[in-house]
Amino acid sequence: MCTEKASTAVPYTVNGRVHCYWRVGSSNSFADSSMKCQSSGAHLATILTSGENAFVLGLCPTADPRCWIGGTDGQTKSSATEAPYSWITGETMSYLNWASGQPEHGPCGTGCYQHRVAIKSTDGKWEDRSEDDSEDAICEWEPKP
Known about the structure:
single chain, about 140 residues, Mannose-Binding Protein A, Chain A, 8-stranded mixed sheet, two-stranded antiparallel ribbon, 2 helices
């Protein structure tokens, strides 16, 4: 079922439903990663449970420092405004796994702020990043029941 979207896709059950996940490599910006997922009818991974977080972490290669997941506060990189984070699917972030001190919305250069979420490959914690950072990404697809 999962390989109809990507040959490397693997299933994981979330809240009683099978979801399919795969890694998009080649280190892309948040927007490019999101478009690559969307071109397969998927979206950047949204994480609803600690088990799902551990599963997604397993898809992020340890050689890379982090992978994009689908969290955002909806602000552009030039905005110093902080806003609540949510998933790109519109789902509320009810499960949280932020690294200590995150999200910080910290500056990433002159006129640049962090508003996108990546999972750290070392421990599965999340941190906010600049949308232009180059990271691998985890895509998620939910087959129709």
